[in-house]
């Protein structure tokens, strides 16, 4: 049963109990480029209280560096080593977990941020934002010459998705491949994306056509998978017993926190609604704490 936070004492106790605060981004800090009211004040409060603040997002459209640019533009203090995105986790997974040989390449369905992280990790890739792939022209298989070096396909949120990208990825994932089957990777599988003015199809909806056509699931790297936490552990010392994951989506953020042995705080400013956690159709994923918005944490100062 979740503890529904309400009093200043509740929030003060949370502020006292946890030293490291991991924040999901979309639906917790902002919707698109619109900050959630009170979010900045709470982040400043946590920093004044010498808390460790980390940002852990499944949004693979931006690299850690370009997220730093977004934080700066929004006037939110953040440092690159505090930012962990699924594009970064995917690049680390390809370079350090599957150890893709340097002479091999990745076919990318995704955007600039994913390409930047792959480049920073020394992973060769094609596709992505290449104008030749960003086309609505019909795809002619007879004209397609697959690059024999491709040994993995990675699929992230791609707002310029099209039939050419899906067809090339499908070809790479079904061609006989000298090094065994081509890896099928997803940066994350969120079904929807909480954009500024409402919901849009998420990264999971971008890889879904391939899953259906192939009858094969990708290895998903973002939350709730451990890979993201392993990337954080490699860079940040934190005590799981005194760490809390704050998120808006039960099957990514809350599961991620639970898998990592962290406390979990669900906020209702993003994907999850009251009906998802109470009543007859409530989810079986139960966060430790629930509150309306991270802005509520400010009440904790009064409660001290
Ligand atoms: O579709 C997606 O990729 C996700 O919905 C989105 O980017 C989630 O980002 P997060 O809530 O993990 O910051
Ligand atoms: Mg979110």
UniProtKB/TrEMBL annotation:
Binding site for substrate: 223
UniProt-listed Gene3D superfamilies: HAD superfamily/HAD-like
SUPFAM superfamilies: HAD-like
Residues the record marks as active site: 24 (nucleophile), 26 (proton donor)
Catalytic activity, reaction form: 4-nitrophenyl phosphate + H2O = 4-nitrophenol + phosphate + H(+)
Molecular function in Gene Ontology: alkaline phosphatase activity; metal ion binding; phosphoglycolate phosphatase activity
Residues where Mg(2+) binds: 24, 26, 248
Domain of life of the native organism: Eukaryota
This protein's UniProt keywords: Hydrolase, Magnesium, Metal-binding
Cofactor(s) essential for the protein: Mg(2+)
Entry's EC annotation: 3.1.3.41
Gene Ontology CC: cytoplasm
The record's free-text note on cofactor binding: Divalent metal ions. Mg(2+) is the most effective.
Name the UniProt record assigns to this protein: 4-nitrophenylphosphatase
